[in-house]
Write a structure and sequence with these properties.
This protein has a three-stranded antiparallel β-sheet. Helix 6 packs antiparallel against helix 7. The longest helix has 28 residues. By secondary structure, the protein is mainly alpha-helical. The mean pLDDT is about 90. A hairpin with a 7-residue loop joins strand 2 and strand 3.
Length: about 160
């Protein structure tokens, strides 16, 4: 929905913008995009206009409503402990941080940080259990480095938001 905030777009344009911004995190396919657009249209968050084309199928243009803008802000701010466990939930929200208050940014960053600190402790505990599983340990060490890298990045975001 955020892709149509600045200007109306047709489905393919929306899909391309999502893939450009978040494509490495998620695969956007028609089975996800169009049902979501339909749902948001039914709920009044998006308006759909038909663009008739000669010699080609009609195209539908989607435009966000004021209620849709409010919905985006509410969706960004709804960041539960369960959401904090999922990187994509976190990353999507960070990509939309300019839409929410500084306090809400801090809340989201600290919630994710707390979850990652718990995850890091759990991974380190598993690594310290020992065993002769070389490749398992390599995976755990790699996971530790990824979590530490994200924690460093979150601290940087916290400091830049201050």
């Amino acid at each position: 929905m955020i892709q149509i905030d600045k200007s109306p777009k047709h489905g393919y344009e929306i899909k391309k913008e999502i893939q450009k911004d978040l494509g490495y995190l998620m695969d956007v396919n028609h089975n996800m995009l169009y049902p979501t657009l339909r749902k948001f249209t039914d709920e009044g968050f998006v308006r759909k206009h038909r663009n008739e084309q000669v010699g080609r199928p009609n195209q539908y243009i989607y435009e966000i409503t004021e209620a849709g803008r409010e919905k985006i802000t509410n969706l960004i701010n709804e960041f539960t402990e369960k959401d904090a466990k999922h990187q994509i939930e976190f990353m999507v929200r960070v990509s939309l941080f300019e839409r929410i208050s500084k306090e809400d940014r801090f809340r989201i960053l600290h919630r994710r940080k707390k979850d990652l600190e718990g995850l890091l402790s759990e991974i380190e505990r598993r690594l310290n259990e020992g065993g002769d599983e070389l490749f398992r340990d390599e995976v755990l060490l790699y996971s530790i480095s990824q979590v530490k890298e994200e924690l460093t990045w979150i601290d940087k975001l916290i400091n830049s938001t201050a």
